């Protein structure tokens, strides 16, 4: 009976399994009310190009394509394309899912794919807290309201209003006994409905909010204490819109170190309007009985300059 030939032993082969490498194939940019996403068609860096019809942003299709650079583009409002919004202690976070589901290779009878499915998370973060401070004031200056707009920041403003609350007050001068009318607001844009709060407000005679003398007339996360401490008519007004908050402060000057100018520094906060009021998000003031009219001899120096707010 013939013998089976002996197969020669194969020499050892140097082999190392090549692991897939991470690629940077997705980029996202968040602005005031939209998210922009750029995706490389070579999503996995393997040379296999994905089809635009196989990828979506929260169910929304591709909005643009660059066939030369092999790029796909998505654009969505923050509250569209299946976004989810979460509020943290200091931010509003909008989350999106970029989903790739490969289909079988077309024009063949083989039900196969050359790439794997993937879900990529995309987040846009917007800060909830923002400081609004005042500059030095001179009676001849024209007042202005300051807002600071930057990517991934909510936009706040603090204005001085006329007595009927209809217009911004054009005068720079307040006399003793006048009521200073403030209106704080946050820009809504395409965010979820927002409610603005004034967390603290302090008055100083110099630009430094920590300087002495100082008067913290809004404290404890939104309590206007001037009427309680001095018996004035300072108070918050009932809200007419969640993204606005109006309050009034009776004009004054410091007993010592009077410079003719006051600096007001306020911390504004915003929450989702659907969130309930709590100990750290409130607007409270003491209501006292009406005081009898008190005549005041006003000299030229007895004025309080109108606060003017800058970035």
From TrEMBL:
User: Mind listing the UniProt keywords for this protein, alphabetically?
Assistant: Cell membrane, Cleavage on pair of basic residues, Disulfide bond, Extracellular matrix, Glycoprotein, Membrane, Secreted, Signal, Transmembrane, Transmembrane helix
Superkingdom of source: Eukaryota
UniProt-recorded Gene Ontology molecular function terms = acrosin binding; structural constituent of egg coat
Subcellular localization is given as: Secreted, Extracellular space, Extracellular matrix; Zona pellucida; Cell membrane
Which GO biological-process labels does this protein carry?
Answer: binding of sperm to zona pellucida; egg coat formation; positive regulation of acrosome reaction
Membrane topology label: Single-pass type I membrane protein
UniProt's post-translational modification comment states: Proteolytically cleaved before the transmembrane segment to yield the secreted ectodomain incorporated in the zona pellucida.
Q: Identify the Gene3D superfamilies for this entry.
A: Zona pellucida, ZP-C domain (2.60.40.4100), Zona pellucida, ZP-N domain (2.60.40.3210)
According to the UniProt record, one GO cellular component term is: egg coat
Q: Keyword Disulfide bond, does the record have it?
A: yes
**Domain ZP, first and last residues per copy:** 29-291
Does the keyword tRNA processing belong to this entry? no
What family does the entry list?
Belongs to the ZP domain family. ZPC subfamily.
Question: What is the stated purpose of this protein?
Answer: Component of the zona pellucida, an extracellular matrix surrounding oocytes which mediates sperm binding, induction of the acrosome reaction and prevents post-fertilization polyspermy. The zona pellucida is composed of 3 to 4 glycoproteins, ZP1, ZP2, ZP3, and ZP4. ZP3 is essential for sperm binding and zona matrix formation.
Give the domain section of the comments.
The ZP domain is involved in the polymerization of the ZP proteins to form the zona pellucida.
**Which protein are we looking at?**
Zona pellucida sperm-binding protein 3
- Origin species: Denticeps clupeoides (denticle herring)
Source taxonomy lineage?
A: Eukaryota, Metazoa, Chordata, Craniata, Vertebrata
């Amino acid at each position: 009976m013939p013998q089976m030939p002996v197969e020669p032993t194969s020499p050892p082969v140097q082999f190392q399994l090549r692991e897939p490498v991470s690629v940077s194939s997705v980029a996202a940019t968040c602005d005031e009310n939209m998210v922009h996403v750029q995706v490389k068609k070579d999503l996995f860096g393997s040379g296999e190009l994905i089809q635009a019809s196989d990828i979506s942003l929260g169910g929304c299709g591709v909005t643009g394509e660059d066939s030369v650079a092999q790029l796909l583009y998505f654009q969505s409002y923050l509250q569209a394309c299946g976004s989810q919004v979460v509020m943290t202690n200091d931010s509003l976070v909008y989350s999106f899912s970029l989903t790739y589901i490969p289909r079988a290779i077309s024009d063949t009878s083989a039900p196969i794919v050359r790439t794997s499915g993937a879900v990529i998370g995309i987040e846009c973060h917007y800060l909830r807290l923002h400081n609004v401070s005042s500059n030095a004031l001179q009676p001849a200056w024209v007042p202005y309201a300051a807002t600071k707009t930057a990517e991934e920041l909510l936009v706040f403003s603090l204005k001085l209003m006329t007595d009927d609350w209809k217009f911004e007050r054009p005068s720079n001068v307040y006399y003793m006994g006048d009521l200073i009318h403030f209106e704080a607001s946050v820009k809504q844009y395409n965010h979820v409905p927002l409610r603005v709060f004034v967390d603290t407000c302090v008055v100083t005679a110099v630009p430094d909010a920590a300087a002495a003398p100082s008067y913290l007339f809004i404290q404890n996360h939104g309590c206007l204490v001037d009427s309680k401490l001095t018996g004035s008519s300072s108070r918050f007004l009932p809200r007419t819109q969640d993204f606005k908050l109006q309050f009034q402060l009776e004009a004054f000057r410091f007993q010592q170190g009077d410079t003719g100018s006051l600096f007001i520094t306020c911390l504004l906060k915003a929450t989702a309007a659907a969130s309930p009021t709590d100990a750290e998000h409130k607007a409270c003031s003491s209501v006292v009985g009406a005081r009898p009219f008190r005549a005041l001899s006003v000299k030229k120096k007895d004025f309080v300059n109108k606060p003017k707010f800058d970035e």
